[in-house]
């Protein structure tokens, strides 16, 4: 192994590690008064890390030249694509945090440091080509996430969300670890490449059980049904900037990790996991849509929306083709922008005392008092529903197209039918915004940074977003090709 080459390939993780440790020392010496400075420095660190990983995506790097530390880490175009989404989402989540926490009674300086270490763990997850690297990255992200969920001391729901997330997350990690141990026992290695080679031909019962347990653990991390039970409670109870973070960056990391495990490590046994993914996909679409209909809290509705959208993304994975993987990455990119726009809009919903307004009924008539905010929130809802000409339609279109191309016409048909059900609860929010009698609860204004993210997201999900389809599709295809070349 060439140590110089390996250390060069992990430059982004090295930089985030050093940055996190330095910022932790700043927090210890300067206290919470340095919180805003630490936040901006953490965002800058994420931007630099993005610059470090971008060349791998632009150059379409894969194979041996992207492998580090005896094949335990891959700095290929696929990981680069996922990391750019992770760093961008984490940076946006950090930018909206100071104003929220200061209104809630104090912004703690360790918040951006925890987010930085979570991003570091997510980077390891998407670059993992060994089960041990996978688990280390997963736990680094999870340990930071548990604390972030319980960060707000002024809201009793926050510690409850952190505790629920910790207990259920620990259970999922245990199940995942058991699956890894079974896979190691029957494949003889923890390396994805060795597992891929060992599982050629008929799959043993033990290996199948290992695969099932691994998929169960990963399904929890991506909030897929029937392992979604934590999502609505954690999304509602966690501080809204943390919910913004959970809905974007960790979602990207978990889905990208699921793609690498299934398409690469278990790539020779697609018929074994394909039917599981199809079932999880359909359940997530249906349960996410039906569960959202009766929600009165906008954050819980967004939680079920997240479950629903994960189901649509898994249609691309079920195709088990390069086109399916690329469509999944396109959808994931659009979903991140929609989620950021939606949660920044929710952050801007405040009453006269500066408290967050989360009840959907309290948004009645918002279009008359805050027309710009209502318009962007309505755009997000229409885009999440996949209604053209908004950009969210393109995400659904490409995954359905990949499913049809792979011969999964029944899956695409059911998905299209279920998307009509999902449109109901999105349209319900729009109806409250524009047609109900004004509740006059929301009086706060949109802050500077919030406005940039809010209206920037609105521009991307508008029809203008279609100008980027060729560029985004090309990058997604380059990233997906790295998985299948390795296989």
Can you describe this structure in just a few lines?
The chain is an all-alpha fold. The protein contains 21 helices and 2 strands.
Describe this structure as you would to a colleague:
The relative contact order is 0.10. This protein has a domain at 269-486. It has 487 residues and is mainly alpha-helical. Helix 13 packs antiparallel against helix 14. It has a two-stranded antiparallel sheet with strand order 1-2. The model has no long low-confidence stretch (mean pLDDT 88). 75% of the residues lie in helices and 1% in strands. The protein is globular.
List low-pLDDT spans: none
As a percent range, the share of strand residues is under 5%
Strand order of the main beta sheet, please?
A: 1-2
Give a count of the beta strands, DSSP E runs of length 2 or more: 2
Q: Biggest sheet: strands, sense, closure?
A: 2 strands, antiparallel
SSE pattern: HHHEEHHHHHHHHHHHHHHHHHH
Structural class: mainly alpha
Please, what is the average pLDDT?
88
Q: Outline, from the CA principal axes? A: globular
From the alpha carbons, calculate the radius of gyration and give it in angstroms: 21 Å
Distance between the termini: 21 Å
Total of helices:
21
Percent helix among the residues?
over 70%
Please give the structural blueprint.
Layout: H1 3-9, H2 11-30, H3 35-58, E1 67-68, E2 73-74, H4 77-95, H5 97-103, H6 110-127, H7 131-149, H8 157-187, H9 192-198, H10 205-221, H11 231-237, H12 240-265, H13 270-293, H14 298-319, H15 322-347, H16 366-369, H17 371-385, H18 392-405, H19 409-435, H20 448-461, H21 469-486
Antiparallel strand pairs: 1-2
Helix pairs in contact: 2-3, 2-6, 3-4, 3-6, 4-6, 4-12, 4-15, 4-21, 6-7, 6-12, 7-8, 7-12, 8-10, 8-11, 10-12, 10-13, 11-12, 11-14, 12-14, 12-15, 13-14, 13-19, 14-15, 14-18, 14-19, 15-17, 15-18, 15-20, 15-21, 17-19, 17-20, 18-19
